[in-house]
Design brief:
By secondary structure, the chain is an alpha+beta fold. It is built from 11 helices and 4 strands, in the order H-E-H-E-H-E-H-H-E-H-H-H-H-H-H. The protein has 2 domains: 120 residues, Beta Polymerase, domain 2 (2-Layer Sandwich), CATH 3.30.460.10; 114 residues.
Length: 265
């Protein structure tokens, strides 16, 4: 993998590996594995993603992020079980700042509608942990405008809910919301310029700097977003800047550059 996150053929290399999980987080991964095997009888496969399999996780700061692909569509009971595992891991392991488990069906992740969103996520951003790897049935991906549009082309649709939540939250909830909003904005900012740069990164600070190279007038705002994604804040002024200024501009620029995201069923 080169400095732009590509394999020799110019496709996006899969980031993360179980070999990169640090000794501090290895017990968390093993506990997650045991609980999943003992809980989900309809499991097709399980994956890790984020900083833990990339080897960049910080004890006490980083989350454990995982995806479970089921043979059938997830039920409410499945979501309750996932929530119980999240809570148990968070209580047992102080080295994680919470656990997040996404649920989906293998069929949905392999569908044409998800080819450049959920499919890309599995094939390039997820590290196999259990079961057969869905990536074997997915294409190799390149940093194209189509990939940009289908992965992050829905920022504008998120704004009404973010604004509603921002008007109602407590200080602690605002801190959590600021992290969610900032992460999404930085990733959207990076994928806006991804085809021009010609590569892939999940590093938030690097994403902000790459964005700033193409949009210097918005560089400082994106740096603030990247910092907030790593160190969330309850400052209402920062959240307002993200939601009411940077995000609307970014959503409009994204659509003008890459077009409208394909509607999902």
């Amino acid at each position: 993998m080169d400095d732009r996150g590509l394999d020799r053929d110019g496709t996006i290399a899969r980031e993360g590996s179980l070999d990169r999980v640090s000794t501090e987080f290895a017990p968390v991964v093993e506990a997650f594995r045991r609980r999943v095997v003992g809980t989900f009888v309809r499991l097709h496969s399980a994956y890790l993603y984020g900083s833990v399999p990339r080897g960049t996780a910080l004890p006490g700061t980083s989350d454990l992020d995982a995806l479970l692909a089921l043979h059938d569509e997830p039920t409410d009971a499945d979501r309750r079980e996932a929530g119980r595992i999240e809570d148990a891991l968070d209580r047992e392991f102080p080295q994680i700042n919470g656990a997040g488990i996404q649920l989906d069906s293998a069929r949905t992740l392999l569908s044409d509608a998800e080819r450049h969103d959920g499919g890309f996520f599995v094939a390039c951003l997820c590290t196999p942990l259990l079961g057969p790897d869905l990536a074997e049935h997915l294409p190799r991906y390149r940093p194209t405008s189509v990939l940009a549009r289908e992965t992050n082309g829905d920022l504008g649709a998120l704004l009404p809910d973010w604004r509603k939540r921002a008007a109602e939250v407590t200080d602690r909830e605002r801190q959590t919301l600021s992290r969610t909003v900032a992460r999404r904005i930085v990733r959207t900012g990076f994928t806006l310029v991804m085809p021009r740069w010609g590569g892939w990164t999940s590093d938030l600070a690097r994403s902000a700097e790459l964005f700033g190279h193409y949009y210097p007038d918005r560089r400082q705002q994106m740096r603030t977003a990247a910092r907030t994604a790593r160190e969330p804040t309850a400052d209402p002024a920062i959240l307002a800047m993200l939601i009411d200024d940077l995000a609307p501009w970014l959503a409009a620029e994204y659509t003008a550059t890459h077009g409208e995201r394909t509607p999902r069923p």
